[in-house]
From TrEMBL:
Transmembrane segments: none annotated. It comes from Mobilisporobacter senegalensis. Signal peptide: none annotated. This is FtsK domain-containing protein. The keyword ATP-binding applies. The lineage of its organism: Bacteria, Bacillati, Bacillota, Clostridia, Lachnospirales. Residues 9-185 form the FtsK domain. InterPro entries: FtsK_dom, P-loop_NTPase, T4SS_component. Keywords: ATP-binding, Nucleotide-binding. Gene3D superfamilies: P-loop containing nucleotide triphosphate hydrolases (3.40.50.300). ATP binds at G34, A35, T36, G37, S38, G39, K40, T41. One of its GO terms (molecular function) is ATP binding. PROSITE patterns: FTSK (PS50901).
Amino acid sequence: MGIQLFLNEQYLSYQIRQIVEWLPEKAPHAVIFGATGSGKTYATKLMLGRISLHISNSQIYVCDYKGDDDFSFLSGTSRFYRFHDCSKGLDNFFKRFQDRQSGLDTSRNMIILYFDEWASYCNNLEKKVAEEEKRKLATLLMLGRSFHVHIIIAQQRVDAVYFNSARDNFNLVIGLGNLSQESKDMLFHEFKDQMKPDRKQGTGYMLTNGTDFTQIQVPTINDKEKLHKYIKMAVTR
Ligand SMILES: Nc1ncnc2c1ncn2[C@@H]1O[C@H](COP(=O)(O)OP(=O)(O)OP(=O)(O)O)[C@@H](O)[C@H]1O
Ligand SMILES: [Mg+2]
């Protein structure tokens, strides 16, 4: 089932409201990147709320490494982890995946790990520990799809070093704000000539499965309370 996410900005310029959809079974894992303040967390919250609304048995794990106020509405919920606790979040999610892989758990409802600031998390771990965490994430990215196990990562830069060669498994790539030449080269290589330098907060480009390239606008959240309510539902159910 398609999940409606953002607005096609090119159509908007002709006053046409075309909504860009995400098909999780075709593009299971998403990465959202851009400079600080470009709107990554805002866009991802919208994504998580829409997942919760449209897939009523989906379960979300939120790891918020930065730990500021963005996810404070989830405080005290069982699948919300902040700062140092993020390692527990990744571990619990990974065990859930392994239970499905081993056959112990036959459920196949959609489970999602959302990790905000994965790169900063890795940078602040001892090298050996960081490698272990990256290995887990790479396994989830490579093997998760058929078990309905999904990853959504938001961070400022998307260097391959954070993903142990599994970076190509992000089949939904969202770049917000004006990206550096290096970032464009890393993830939008074939489309970089079409990328304009006029991106504002909450606007950017989305690439699905390396082929569908769309100029997007992240819609404004009208009812923040409602959005938080839906995210919370998926983090607790
Ligand atoms: N599409 C949007 N519409 C309206 N406001 C937005 C939009 N996107 C972002 N904002 C606002 O811009 C500010 C920065 O957004 P956000 O926190 O999502 O950025 P970020 O990329 O996650 O930054 P950081 O890397 O520092 O965490 C927030 O106050 C947010 O409310
Ligand atoms: Mg953020």
